[in-house]
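QA checklist item 7 of 12: single-chain prediction sanity check.
[x] sequence parsed
[x] length recorded as 139
[x] structure emitted
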Amino acid sequence: MSSELKSPLADWPRDLAKELTEARFNGAVGHELVSETQRVRVWSIRLKPGERIGFHRHVLDYFWTAITDGRSVSHYGDGRIAEKTYAAGDTQHYSFGPGEFMVHDLHNIGDTELAFTTVEFLGSANTPLPIPDRLRRRN
């Protein structure tokens, strides 16, 4: 008797699972890179109700801070789906060892704009992923 393991993405809409596969090395963890030094990358994320930022890969130690109250749902590369409620000022820190990463998206399911600042630390255990020049703030 054999048993077949079900993929954790089997219940996801096909287009979402396809996007995850195509974007699994996307290093753009925000909408706009507002500042970059030898030590940090500072990102801005702003999502109107119903908007989402697509799948992206975190490999660097980082933290985010919510600028506004709101609600989101995220799909993760391991198949998890998680809803979260934020209050302005909420902050969460993440750390990744060599070869570790997290892939997810972020969808605003609330009725107000959802905004974050995310700070990545370039001196982390992993090499920073490349990001497109079009995401860098033009001064």
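[x] summary fact logged: The beta strands are 32-36, 40-47, 52-58, 62-66, 70-75, 81-86, 91-94, 102-108, 114-121.
[ ] second reviewer sign-off
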